[in-house]
């Protein structure tokens, strides 16, 4: 997020939605200086920031930057997180950390949208966290995903570097690959489907046409041996 550009384009903004830990789809992380600038803008403009802590658990090389909510001195940040990524999608439990002035409003909104979340799931999760199991689970999942990340990137560098250029990233559960000259998103997606690769074109997530051709490759749901095998076969498919 370019804070100065956002201020110029929307000087009277009252709400900013941001994913500072991991922007989708390119995977960028909002720097500390930009986080501070965003908080200063929110304070001076009487504006709210909705911070979606998307994929913050999946950081592999560096320490995470403190959340906007933790840096906020003026109570302008609404912080949201979910357990669905780390547990399983059907778990359907998330959480909000809201400024004191908004607690009553959010209680009313919660009541009228779905009354309450499942008590059994909440109690089980609370016990899972308090006994230290969740922290161990996060470390185990992060380690497994990092192994899959390394397998995917190393396999691409070994067999497909003439087609894909990997965008460096330090977090997340997918990578972005830029296509070398002569290849298009449409062609790579079509050929990938023939061998069982679920490849997403970057253009799907662009409001305007993007100057470069790129794709998204997920790896979290696949065993390293499966990743290596499929992308080895891709060598003969992507001619």
TrEMBL record:
MF terms (GO), sorted A to Z: pyridoxal phosphate binding
Any Pfam family: Aminotran_1_2
CDD domains: AAT_like (cd00609)
InterPro entries reported in the protein's UniProt record: Aminotransferase_I/II_large, HTH_trans_reg/aminotransferase, PyrdxlP-dep_Trfase, PyrdxlP-dep_Trfase_major
Domain Aminotransferase class I/classII large: 3-180
Domain of life: Bacteria
Protein name: GntR-family transcriptional regulator
């Amino acid at each position: 997020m370019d804070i100065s550009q956002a201020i110029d384009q929307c000087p009277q903004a009252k709400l900013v939605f941001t994913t500072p830990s991991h922007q989708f789809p390119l995977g960028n992380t909002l720097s500390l200086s930009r986080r501070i600038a965003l908080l200063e803008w929110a304070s001076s403009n009487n504006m709210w920031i909705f911070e979606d802590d998307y994929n913050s658990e999946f950081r592999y090389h560096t320490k995470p930057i403190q959340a906007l909510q933790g840096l906020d001195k003026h109570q302008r940040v609404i912080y949201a997180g979910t357990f669905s990524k780390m547990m399983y999608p059907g778990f359907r439990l998330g959480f909000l950390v809201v400024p004191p002035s908004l607690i009553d409003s959010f209680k009313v909104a919660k009541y009228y949208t779905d009354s309450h979340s499942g008590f059994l799931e909440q109690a089980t999760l609370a016990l899972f966290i308090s006994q230290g199991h969740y922290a161990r689970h996060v470390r185990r999942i992060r380690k497994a995903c990092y192994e899959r990340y390394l397998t995917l990137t190393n396999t691409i560098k070994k067999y497909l570097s003439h087609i894909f250029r990997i965008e460096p990233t330090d977090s997340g559960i997918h990578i972005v690959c830029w296509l070398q000259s002569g290849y298009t998103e449409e062609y790579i997606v079509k050929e990938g489907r023939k061998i069982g690769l679920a490849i997403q074109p970057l253009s799907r997530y662009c409001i305007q046409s993007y100057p470069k051709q790129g794709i998204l490759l997920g790896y979290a749901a696949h065993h390293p041996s499966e990743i290596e095998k499929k992308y080895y076969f891709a060598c003969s498919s992507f001619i």
